[in-house]
């Protein structure tokens, strides 16, 4: 059985959302596809190679997804094959997408009867298993799709267009989340006001998106990026790329954990569709998974 789930962009609220602040997030058109077949043992096949259950390597999210699923419905084996349009370590929710798609495919193949809500909560648990701390936003958006204001979980619509630019650097979510957490522990009087400011930006940003106020979104992007830089999750390379984008009349900021990955822009770069469908079951024949067997 094949399931797919979308990646995501965080428009506003990176890192601050981990501490209960507001975030504005959207699913994107790039998806991760996972095929699950019953088997006598566990085998995971992806662009990273073939492994059995691997809780510390490139297949950690898939392995923990299988572990969490097995706590609900005991299974003795499964072949899991992954094809993804979402670049890994990109800040675009590739880990959440493969987790949600894996859980959904397992659910369908083994007829466990899990709801979308069940899938979301399991996926959030997997995020915490791997990262140690997680907001669950990536898993939420990958499960349900759409444009959302968090924590209210309120949908919104916007006609504004966005673009993505690859920084050429890898973004490791767990590393960046731990970095900000350590900074917050060591300097709470400095970091807490930054997170509060990000909260205000997300609230104002949601309002501006709903009325399609591009001018205000550009201003908020610039302020938000400055705060992300203050948290230490930008890089000199990202700063240079954003400066070049600014010179062309656009605004840009990190999307996701930072340290690398993709940069979200107000229309420059690869155009993306936002707010699309969440997790779904696919037609096996459409994706030719026999090529990977």
Automatic annotation (TrEMBL):
Residues 207-264 form the GHMP kinase C-terminal domain. It holds the Pfam family GHMP_kinases_C. One of its GO terms (molecular function) is ATP binding. Its EC number is 2.7.1.36. Keywords: ATP-binding, Cytoplasm, Kinase, Lipid biosynthesis, Lipid metabolism, Magnesium, Nucleotide-binding, Transferase. GO terms for biological process: ergosterol biosynthetic process; isopentenyl diphosphate biosynthetic process, mevalonate pathway. Pathway: Isoprenoid biosynthesis; isopentenyl diphosphate biosynthesis via mevalonate pathway; isopentenyl diphosphate from (R)-mevalonate: step 1/3. Residues 61-146 form the GHMP kinase N-terminal domain. SUPFAM superfamilies: GHMP Kinase, C-terminal domain, Ribosomal protein S5 domain 2-like. InterPro entries: GHMP_kinase_C_dom (IPR013750), GHMP_kinase_C_sf (IPR036554), GHMP_kinase_N_dom (IPR006204), Mev_gal_kin (IPR006205), Ribosomal_Su5_D2-typ_SF (IPR020568), Ribsml_uS5_D2-typ_fold_subgr (IPR014721). GO terms for cellular component: cytosol. This is Mevalonate kinase. It comes from Geoglobus ahangari.
């Amino acid at each position: 059985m094949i399931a797919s789930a979308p990646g995501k962009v965080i428009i506003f609220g990176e890192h601050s959302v981990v501490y209960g602040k507001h975030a504005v997030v959207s699913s994107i058109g790039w998806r991760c596809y996972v095929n699950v077949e019953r088997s006598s043992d566990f085998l995971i096949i992806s662009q990273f190679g073939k492994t059995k259950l691997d809780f510390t390597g490139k297949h950690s999210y898939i392995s923990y997804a299988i572990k969490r699923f097995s706590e609900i419905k005991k299974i003795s084996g499964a072949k899991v094959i992954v094809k993804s349009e979402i670049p890994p370590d990109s800040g675009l929710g590739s880990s959440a997408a493969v987790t949600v798609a894996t859980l959904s495919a397992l659910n369908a193949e083994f007829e466990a009867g899990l709801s979308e809500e069940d899938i979301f909560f399991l996926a959030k648990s997997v995020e915490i298993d791997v990262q140690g701390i997680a907001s669950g936003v990536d898993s939420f958006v990958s499960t349900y799709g759409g444009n959302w204001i968090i924590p209210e979980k309120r949908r919104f619509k916007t006609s504004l267009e966005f673009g993505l630019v690859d920084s050429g650097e890898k973004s490791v979510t767990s590393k960046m989340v731990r970095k900000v957490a350590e900074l917050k522990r060591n300097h709470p009087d400095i970091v807490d006001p930054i997170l509060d400011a990000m909260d205000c930006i997300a609230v104002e940003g949601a309002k501006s998106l709903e009325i399609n106020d591009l001018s205000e979104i550009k201003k908020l992007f610039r302020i938000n990026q400055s705060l992300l830089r203050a948290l230490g999750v930008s890089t000199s390379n990202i700063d240079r790329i954003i400066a070049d984008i600014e010179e062309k009349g656009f605004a840009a900021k990190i999307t996701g954990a930072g340290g690398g990955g993709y940069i979200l822009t107000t229309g420059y770069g690869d155009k993306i569709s936002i707010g699309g469908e969440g997790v779904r079951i696919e037609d096996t024949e459409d994706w030719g998974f026999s090529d990977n067997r």
